């Protein structure tokens, strides 16, 4: 019993840590992108331009996209095919949730490894960005990191489905049909609000 409590606390701690990383990276990227784009618009009134604006914006969108996949998985807001899941009840739904979360985690870890190999190849080519002349592989490192974070989210979902009753679509969000909730209530549940 004590080991289960410690394990659950460790999983919850990992979930909180991942949430903080995701939210900070996404928020900082969006805010920085907005500031850069607004500054460039203002500069154009004075016939000036901040030349790296487009390149920096592309890099930041890359960050938001790959870290955002992990955030979407953690909050249960990712795209999912739910017809079969909605039709199934009880043990079959639970088995499907376990299978889907484990399979998705394994695929994401494999894609993280493939993207890591790609980043290594790009690094060996010494490619740099056109305007800032930054090594492109620094920016591309977010790909394996994003896939790794998302794989961790699905691993947490898999564990949650093993140790908790009902079907879970993420570590923090139980399947809405298990609770009789709609999508808005599930969003509140993912955010940690009462609902």
Compact overview of the structure:
With 195 residues, the chain is mainly alpha-helical. Helices cover 75% and strands 0% of the residues.
What are the main properties of this structure?
195 residues; mainly alpha; 8 helices; 75% helix; elongated
What does this structure look like?
This protein is mainly alpha-helical and 195 residues long. It has one domain (2-191). The chain is 75% helix and 0% strand. The chain is elongated and about 65 Å long.
Please state the average pLDDT score.
86
- Low-pLDDT stretches: none
Structural class: mainly alpha
Helix content: over 70%
How are the secondary structure elements laid out?
Layout: H1 2-44, H2 53-75, H3 83-87, H4 90-124, H5 136-140, H6 142-163, H7 176-179, H8 183-191
